[in-house]
Specification:
By secondary structure, this protein is an alpha/beta fold. The chain has 29 helices and 30 strands. It is globular and about 90 Å long. The termini are far apart. One of its GO terms (molecular function) is hydrolase activity.
């Protein structure tokens, strides 16, 4: 009011008198306006910084979700249990036929299956069928076709085989039907089915048929009002009782009007169930793709229904909403007492929808009482309400964990621990979150140890493993006894404080809530930990708007049962559901910029090897290892006290020690560009998980393996174990070992397997080729390495692109006593491998030779084909064997 009166007086005085008089007053006016502007700025700043969000914005957004059903109607739609005895005869896998794996529809299907963590096999619709059965059991639970054309255009033989498989094993199909490119096609009959398609229509007011047995997660009864954005829908007409509508809509005018559209507002069928009474095959037809969010729900329930419950989703959803940095924030953006009251009231409302719901507050004690007077009152109100909420510790001053050693991390945590004690903050769930996710992944070992020592932390969470995007690929892992759970974002970050500055506007946020990305996290993830920040509970209170809206939307459209348990219980439940996630898969920290920002500055990917010698054992890997070390540009790993020259990281318990442990085995290269770090671990070649693990950490690494006659390799391994004093090898002949039955003692079977299985080269090489292109894999003929190592080392250098080229003629010499090439020392003497190398064994008996020839024959033929396919040179020993 004071400024209003001042302005009115100034205006009156200025306008009084003639224009000439006004000119004389202009300077006075300008000065007054400047003064007024300055005073106004001060007043506005004071008003903004010391007011509650209610004053900062008059009307914080309210949840706008309306459920049309009352409680009685909701109770009518109970989730269906699809379990039947037919599920016992099929596997837990989906077969997907696509015309192109890069099409929009194919990507939507595969990403949805990945999101749902459903295993699938992708096949080109024009190729031969994969094997459909195994051991009198169907391999696939559901068959999915990217398009109807892919199904009806299958050649007759494959179509008949596939239909018979579905009939015999009661396996259903999901088929997507897409509009024709030619607008002239209005209707078309489906060959072989009493079904008519109407193309290129727009629809509105989409609703579900409540009277069908498909709905499990989906709750029918609501309607998607207004027009659906796409105008290329296909709708269905039928004249047989086998068909049952799954959804209806009304025809709508397309975004553009043209001569072929006649508005009639009639009801049409958009998704359809074929119950199989016509030909014994159940099918679900979609008149559009998975872009429409309701189709995502129908898709999940359809898989459950058609698989007889084999691929059913649980209905329980466990939810935790973390409010990071409850005391941390720029002055003017922090919570006031009114905001804390709103937070508590929102929690009460949410507890009616989510069993045991509590906001989980993360605190950094140093920032307490560091705001304006109203914000400090907000801090006090938070502590007044401390027992209403759950709590977890950050760092004392919000430090980034990866920047500090263990001692400094513990000092910071102890201060925060003492702050919690002094203010009676109930921190009791053995859970913590690192600021900025720093040190959780990529792992900073001191952080994990400090957590254990100070807070006895058993659970944390991060959105960074294996990386931030795509969100549906986030996973959990266990490291040093700490369960790391996947963490979801909800579209709100520290910079998102007001609805009118939300990226993409309010519509973007509402789209995420109403069927979009945030809704899908509830739909697909049984366990969700959401990351939010204090700033979005002040100001516009967008976080309250977001979570109340999305939970109400979930309740409207789904039968999901929303619950909250402690973080420790969530961790236990997660790894009960997904035990395969327990072991982490270490990724290359230097691939993603974000990971480099939260990885310790004193670590470098320069200490990761550029190539690996992977074996198999007893093929000459140690000789190659020694020859490589001669080269001045090649640096080997340091020796291990347990496994000598081998690190053996990727194939055993050492893998759980993490990449910090692994990198300690490598020197810091003098020149990261020209120097080549490498390691040799000969048991990598046949390790089940090794190719996947190596590719995850070292995707650009080159792989070297050595192949010799597998029969000789098997005999050499047996003799190696015998020379080492192995009791089994000493008590059994070689022939007894390799022919031992499965009923033999465990240690006998173990020696049999270690003798025979690594020599099934084709099986192991195929696994490496699944992850590495053939240009990154170099195969050495073990016989040539022994007889002509100079030529082999020349080719190895070419493969690695090492400069300068090294002439091994000057450094390798044949030793007639040893029977192989040795290194030439500076004193011009031969330095050969130890006594354990180059042993002369008694000849293998003919019976064993014949057995091994028979055992490896089929695999060696397959190996020859695989090598030829990838344009590798066939080893001399293999050519000789196949020509005999």
């Amino acid at each position: 009011m004071m400024f209003k009166r001042f302005w009115e007086r100034l205006k009156t005085n200025y306008l009084r008198g003639s224009p000439l008089h006004r000119v004389g007053r202009t300077k006075t006016l300008v000065s007054a306006v400047v003064c007024l502007s300055f005073l106004s700025f001060i007043a506005f700043s004071y008003h903004f910084l010391n007011s509650s969000p209610v004053h900062r914005i008059a009307n914080p957004p309210e949840p706008a979700i309306t459920c049309r059903m009352n409680n009685l109607q909701k109770s009518m739609f109970t989730p269906k249990d699809h379990t039947s005895k037919e599920r016992l005869h099929i596997g837990a896998r989906v077969l997907v036929f696509v015309e192109s794996q890069y099409s929009k529809a194919a990507k939507q299907i595969t990403s949805s299956l990945q999101y749902a963590r459903i295993d699938y096999k992708l096949e080109n619709a024009g190729h031969n069928l994969p094997t459909l059965t195994h051991a009198d059991k169907g391999r696939f639970a559901v068959i999915i076709f990217e398009s109807l054309e892919a199904y009806v255009n299958m050649d007759n033989w494959n179509r008949q085989l596939l239909d018979k498989y579905c009939q015999d094993y009661k396996v259903g199909m999901i088929i997507f039907v897409h509009s024709a490119d030619e607008y002239g096609i209005e209707k078309e009959k489906v060959p072989g089915l009493p079904l008519i398609l109407r193309y290129n229509v727009a629809v509105k007011d989409y609703r579900l048929n409540a009277f069908t047995d498909i709905w499990r997660i989906t709750k029918p009864g609501e309607t998607v009002l207004d027009n659906i954005e796409e105008d290329d829908w296909v709708v269905f007409e039928y004249n047989h009782s086998t068909y049952e509508p799954l959804s209806y809509a009304k025809l709508a005018p397309p975004p553009y009007l043209n001569s072929r559209y006649i508005p009639d507002n009639s009801t049409v069928v958009c998704a359809l169930l074929d119950r199989g009474t016509l030909d014994g095959i159940q099918r679900i037809f979609f008149g559009n793709d998975l872009s429409f969010w309701v189709h995502q729900m129908i898709f999940i329930d359809g898989i459950s229904y058609l698989s007889h419950g084999k691929l059913s989703f649980p209905l329980e959803r466990y939810i935790l909403v973390d409010v990071d940095d409850i005391f941390v924030g720029i002055t003017g953006t922090r919570m006031t007492a009114d905001d804390v009251e709103a937070l508590a009231k929102s929690q009460e409302r949410l507890q009616k929808e989510v069993s045991n719901f509590h906001f989980n507050l993360g605190f950094s004690g140093w920032f307490y009482q560091h705001g304006t007077s109203l914000e400090n009152a907000g801090d006090q109100k938070i502590l007044e309400y401390r027992n209403k909420f759950w709590w977890f510790g950050h760092m004392w001053r919000h430090e980034q964990g990866h920047k500090f050693d263990q001692a400094k991390l513990e000092t910071s945590m102890i201060k925060n621990y003492q702050f919690a004690k002094e203010h009676n903050i109930p921190v009791m769930h053995q859970y913590a979150v690192a600021p900025h996710h720093s040190g959780v992944y990529p792992v900073h070992e001191p952080l994990y140890q400090a957590w254990k020592n100070v807070w006895d932390i058993r659970v944390t969470s991060t959105e960074e493993y294996p990386r931030l995007y795509p969100s549906w690929k986030r996973r959990g892992f266990i490291h040093k006894g700490v369960m790391v759970l996947p963490r979801q974002t909800c579209g709100l970050f520290t910079k998102t404080l007001y609805i009118d500055t939300y990226p993409g506007g309010r519509k973007k946020l509402d789209d995420s809530i109403q069927g979009g990305e945030l809704f899908k996290t509830f739909l697909y993830n049984p366990i969700n930990i959401y990351m939010t920040h204090m700033g979005n509970y002040a100001n516009d209170r967008l976080a309250l708007y977001t979570f109340e809206s999305v939970i109400k939307f979930v309740k409207c459209w789904t039968n999901l049962q929303l619950k909250q348990v402690t973080p420790l219980e969530m961790g236990i439940k997660y790894f009960e559901m997904y035990p395969e996630d327990k072991e982490p898969v270490w990724q290359d920290p230097c691939v993603y910029k974000r990971h480099m920002q939260i990885w310790s500055a004193n670590k470098s990917c320069d200490r990761l090897p550029k190539f690996l010698v992977v074996g198999p054992q007893k093929t000459g890997t140690t000789a190659l290892y020694k020859f490589l070390q001669i080269h001045p540009a090649i640096l080997a790993n340091y020796n291990s006290p347990d496994t000598f020259e081998e690190v053996q990281f990727f194939n055993g318990n050492n893998y759980h020690k993490g990449i910090d442990w692994y990198m300690e085995f490598f020197p810091v290269p003098g020149n990261a560009t020209s120097d080549f770090l490498f390691e040799k671990s000969a048991n990598y070649f046949d390790g089940e998980l090794v190719p996947y693990r190596v590719h995850s950490l070292l995707p650009k690494a080159k792989i070297i393996c050595i192949l010799i006659d597998p029969a000789k390799r098997a005999y050499s391994w047996y003799q190696h174990m015998k020379a080492r004093g192995d009791q089994i090898a000493g008590n059994y002949t070689f022939h007894e070992i390799i022919t031992a039955p499965d009923s033999a003692p465990r240690k006998v079977r173990e020696l049999r397997n270690r003798s025979l299985i690594p020599g099934i080269y084709v099986q192991h090489l195929q696994k490496w080729l699944e992850f590495f292109p053939s240009r990154q894999i170099f195969i050495i003929d073990g016989g040539r390495l022994k007889s002509n190592p100079v030529a082999v080392m020349h080719n190895v250098q070419r493969f690695l692109h090492i400069e300068p080229h090294y002439d091994y003629n000057d450094y390798l010499r044949f030793d007639p006593k040893k029977g192989f090439f040795c290194q030439v020392s500076s004193a011009n003497k031969s330095e050969c491998l130890g006594r354990g190398k180059g042993r002369h064994y008694p000849p293998m008996n003919e019976t064993s030779v014949e057995f091994l020839e028979q055992f490896y024959r089929k695999n060696n033929v397959a190996l020859s084909k695989l090598l030829s396919k990838h344009k590798y040179r066939i080893p001399d020993w293999l050519e000789k064997e196949l020509s005999d």
